[in-house]
Amino acid sequence: MDLIRRLFTAALVAGVLSGTAASVVQQATTVPLILEAEKYEVVTPPPAPAVAAPGAAAAGESHQHGPVREVGEGVPTTLDEAMQRIGLTIASNLLTGVAYALLLSAAMLLAGRPVDARRGLVWGAGGFIAVSLAPSFGLAPELPGMAGAELELRQLWWLSAAAGAGAGVAALAFARNRLVIAAAVLAAALPHLIGAPHPESAEGAVPPELAAHFVTASLGSAALFWAILGAACGWLMSGLVRETDHRPALRAQPGAR
């Protein structure tokens, strides 16, 4: 029970630190880009049909059209709405940080290897590759207003890509058996070989330069998040892992280096 309590405490502290840092950085990097992209997401409803003169109905039907996106109008927000969005962003980052910290801390504990802040940084790099970098080769971070395939398909592909990349990184780091390594690398490559779901038409209202800037800013923010998360987890877990070195149940499994 004490082990679980300390594990959760370490994950909570590391998650809060990394989530807070990411929230601060996002307010200066990705959030302004999202707000700018939302200007291109404003949709004007189709104009009400005018009373046409007899005999002009046929010609009027050929000019009917759907909603039209307006560029540059912006999204009206009040101060309360802005504060609510900031609060939701911070809460989401904190929850995400704690969840990933739990996974990373549990992995450190099960690996049974020495950890500290420096080694934790390496663990964080592995997490960044698995969760952010590798999936971005198929599905790059998207802004509001960008064209995309169905959300469920994108989520499923992202989960498979992240899980495969995580298995590949773990196998390259710890496995000795070449078949295990080959299988893990294949699992990491398979989602990309199948291909990520994309819309039939890539047309979107957001300018490509804005989308490209958002991709680099998102990956940079994610790299900082994982660096802090890994270093904090390594530092907080160092004593806990040393104490469990003698526990057979927590030692590395056969085949680990």
From TrEMBL:
Keywords: Membrane, Plasmid, Signal, Transmembrane, Transmembrane helix. Residues 51-70 are annotated as: Disordered. It holds the Pfam family CbtA. InterPro entries: CbtA_put. It comes from the Bacteria. The chain crosses the membrane at residues 86-109, 121-140, 155-174, 179-198, 210-237. Residues 51-60 have a biased composition (Low complexity). Residues 1-21 form the signal peptide. The keyword Cell cycle does not apply. The keyword Methyltransferase does not apply. This is Cobalt transporter. It comes from Azospirillum humicireducens.
